[in-house]
Amino acid sequence: MINDDEWLGLSHSRLLRLNERHQLHQAVVTPFKTMQIAARSDGVDCQLVSSYRGFTRQLTIWNRKWEGELPLYDTQGNLLDTAELTADEKIDAILSWSALPGGSRHHWGTDFDVYDRDSVKQRDWQFELVVSEYAKLGPCYELACWLNENAGKFGFFRPFEVYTGGVAEEPWHLSHQRTASNFEKVRNRQALKDVLINSDIRGKDAIIRRLDELFERYVLNRGTL
């Protein structure tokens, strides 16, 4: 049984390390590696950009974005001026691309981001992990097409495939459906509220005031459209 600390990213007892940068849930490592080999046999490179992230790492990302140390974008990928945003606008801008600490699927080790490293290097591309890089003329377009056809064969799906008013479209984000579903079932807003209240997250008052809405719209990605 998965407890609150595990889905919130406070602890994890089932991680396996792939290298110095990346860890995945033990049930996901073999399906990922099998998919990676299959992609390579078709001439497509499928490498991890981001994998497991715990609560503390997600909190650091959030706070840096809130303070303007990392860029904020709208759902079309346009750069925003952090200083001109209200607290609510800042929350929505961050949540379009980055999850609340405690609310990230990356906490589970079941979800990860991928890119075509070979293509990025060959084209000397300044990689930013944006949608245009996975569209036609982008360095990861062939990978995106390959995943469209093949990811499901290995048990993976894209939880943010379509923008519905919650999390922006993320063609790079894959989730191991069977394993992730166990974490999805135990998510609850009270546990998230408790951990956020006791954290040093920036914008805490505005977040807590809107948490019921944010939980539905972004954490569960039910959107507004």
UniProtKB/TrEMBL annotation:
CDD domains: DD-carboxypeptidase_like. Pfam families: VanY. It comes from the Bacteria. Residues 22-176 form the D-alanyl-D-alanine carboxypeptidase-like core domain. Gene3D superfamilies: 3.30.1380.10. SUPFAM superfamilies: Hedgehog/DD-peptidase (SSF55166). This is M15 family metallopeptidase. It comes from Alteromonas ponticola.
